[in-house]
Amino acid sequence: EVQLQASGGGLVQPGGSLRLSCAASGFTFDDYAMSWVRQAPGKKRQLVAANGFNGLLTYHAESVKGRFTISRENAKNTVYLQMNSLKPEDTAVYYCAADRTYTTVKVNPTYWGQGTLVTVSS
Questions:
Q1: CB 32 within 8 A of CB 53
Q2: Are 101 and 50 in contact (CB under 8 A)?
Q3: Distance of CA 61 to CAs 24, 36, 46, 50, 82, Å?
Q4: Residues 122 and 15 sit within 8 Å (Cβ to Cβ)
Q5: Which of 52, 49, 58 lies closest to 82 in space, CA to CA?
Q6: Which of 45, 48, 60, 84 has the most crowded Cβ, counting Cβ within 10 A?
Q7: What is the CA radius of gyration of the chain?
């Protein structure tokens, strides 16, 4: 059974940092591209970041470039999202997702985690 367990969300003040983690199981992690997608209340899902199976290919949405960084540790079957300089508009539920291809993980991933809530507020 495929599982993607996201963690690390919480309440943080504007300008603060959080690191999200997503632990994967049930598939060969090294063979899969990973992504982070967020959904704010009343808004559509937005791709935040993605990386290829070996981490060399990466994508970050314009709205988070320079503030967020996706990375992965294949030995631990885990993908991370380091979020710095957080803004209130970053408030959302953050989901990790997986797919066999880098292209598809950015548009229609096969596997989804349960999400972790990030709230940026003073």
A1: yes
A2: no
A3: 23, 10, 9, 9, 14
A4: no
A5: 49
A6: 48
A7: 13
pLDDT 10s per residue in the chain (122 long)?
A: 999 999 999 999 999 999 999 999 999 999 999 999 999 999 999 999 999 998 889 999 999 999 999 999 999 999 999 999 999 999 999 999 999 999 999 999 999 999 999 999 99
The one-letter amino acid code at 10 reads G
AA letter at 115: G
**Tokens describing residue 38:** 């967020």
**Contact call for residues 92 and 118 (beta carbons, < 8 A):** yes
In the block, residue with structure tokens 């290919």: 57
- The DSSP bridge pattern shows strands 116-120 and 78-83 to be unpaired
